[in-house]
Amino acid sequence: MKQVDDQSGNRVAGCPVLRISNVSEPTLTFYPAPAGNNTGATIIVNPGGGYNILAYNLEGSEICKRFNSFGINCVLVKYRVPRREGLEKHTAPLQDLQRAIAYTRSHAGEWNIDPGRIGVMGFSAGAHLSAMASTAYGEPTYPKVDAYDDVSLRPDFCILIYPLEILRYPIESDRCISRRCENVDKTSFRIYI
């Protein structure tokens, strides 16, 4: 993992963006809501960065802390970036997010969260990743590792913040979720864009 120093002076609301690159081992960080205010709901947060870097603080840790103040637990995913040679740019990150969903749901009792109220949220490329996970939950993208992978990969809700190329016509590749939209019907969970 490498933190990329932002020499350009790019800031958002006066704050520098912590840009992380060269993530070869995915990790997740659990941000529990305060015990007296825990609603049981959990959001798995996916920072953006064009699948090249992760905007880790402003689209990650700061978001988790804010949701905690509302009684919502968060899991921050540090997924693999940049893209892997010979793979679509979202393939390794989607594997990481699907595993994060399985791991989170499997730890619901231990973490005091509701396994039926686990959703995904992302910004830009992280929103694209969240949309992919929300439409490909019936298609695990990695071989089963352990018993954690026996639980549902289906998020219970999805929040997309300025998503990257989720709808594109004509449909050019598996990156575009348009080809998966035929699976969306009145029984589908809520997606907020």
UniProtKB/TrEMBL annotation:
Pfam families on file: BD-FAE
Record-annotated BD-FAE-like domain positions: 36-138
Keywords: Hydrolase
Gene Ontology MF, one: hydrolase activity
Entry protein name: BD-FAE-like domain-containing protein
Higher taxonomy: unclassified sequences, metagenomes, ecological metagenomes
